[in-house]
């Protein structure tokens, strides 16, 4: 059946693709089959990895436009691959700058829908505003609906794990698994992977040993990941109490990184990785979209913010001029440290911040208080429901905290309940699909 209508999904980064686009387009495809053509258009974003189009092509969509062609599309309505456009359609904003969705909808003559987690902008020029949670919206002609969190639908879309990782590794069904999620970008992996491997060493020496697995980000190959565990390729290993590892890719079984201590950290490449994450007892992760994905699956986690990154990290989650300056090679490292401490000072107040600076040893608990919450579930809840560890992190101390949780399953169960409460119930994707199809019907008039 030839499609008669077009749905153009705008997005910008791996996190938005995994937590917003994937549930939406999967639900949409199940609902409409081939009656509607689904196009994904990647928009400019300073935090994008450059591999977003490749990730989106794995989803049930008809075509994907990489970010390098976005401006040509917006200005000329054409693409290098000669895309055509159906007479009726809708542009659905699922990440990036909301203005891009407004402008592209005007250019194509389509309806415009915004999914808004925090704040709706350009409300006078859109047709539908779908809100994650109730929030004030200025008077507008747009239809406004509260639909919930798209990420909750990950729970229903994630199939049960087959095969079970424990079976593949010959482990007992009751063996707890720990997921190590060190990130997908160089600025996080340079320190995150060596630290994760050192944590795995500590867990392997526990009684009984606790196996670890790394869900490999879709933007990484095994070879590119392993380079961050090689001191020749990653000189930042000297900045953290991490360890090295060597990559092994056996013909039978999962590939793995092996540390000098002999610890094997298994590498999981199946995408989406939700079936694996459902198997783990707890995850160790950096800040970012990982915390939102884990929360959507109700997976307990410990979130790491290593202070060692102040000396080497150039890219970070803050937007604006500071984000651009941090990316400059000449001043990046010093500016990152400056921005970090300014944020701490802003959160604590200058008087308390001055006390932190004057103390012989840094009070990292105060620093953490000044930074505020960084993990998404904590931001949503307004309180710490998953632990955030800030400071010059010690792999042994992190491992001990993980072992504590594994030895106290009631605490893990309570964390799961808290995550489920803050994320909410599934159904947002279906609601957004119905809003979209309703607008397509309006477009027929």
Plain-language structure description:
The protein is α/β, with parallel strands linked by helices. It is built from 18 helices and 15 strands. It has helices at about 15-30, 50-55, 70-75, 100-110, 155, 165-170, 185-205, 220-225, 275, 290-295, 320-325, 330-350, 350-360, 365-370, 375-380, 395-405, 410-425, 430-445, and strands at about 5-10, 35-40, 65, 90-95, 110-115, 130, 145, 180, 210-215, 245-250, 255-260, 265-270, 280-285, 300-305, 390. Strands 10-11-12-9-8-13-14-15 form an 8-stranded mixed sheet, with helices on both faces. Strands 3-2-1-4-5-6-7 form a 7-stranded parallel sheet, with helices on both faces. Helix 4 (about 100-110) links the parallel strand 4 and strand 5 (about 110-115). Helix 1 crosses helix 10 (about 290-295) and helix 7 (about 185-205) crosses helix 16. The longest helix is centred in the N-terminal third of the chain and has 19 residues, at about 15-30. It starts with a strand and ends with a helix.
Oligomeric state of shown chains: single chain
User: What best-fitting shape do the alpha-carbon axes yield?
Assistant: globular
Strand-pairing-aware structural class: alpha/beta
DSSP helix count?
A: 18
Provide the helix percentage: 25-40%
**pLDDT < 50 stretches:** 309-332
Our measurement of the CA-to-CA distance between the termini, rounded to an integer number of angstroms, reads: 23 Å
* Major sheet: arrangement of strands: 10-11-12-9-8-13-14-15
Tally of strands? 15
Q: If you compute it from the alpha carbons, what radius of gyration comes out, rounded to the nearest whole angstrom?
A: 23 Å
Q: Kindly report the average pLDDT value.
A: 86
Strand content bin? 15-25%
User: What's the story with the biggest beta sheet?
Assistant: 8 strands, mixed
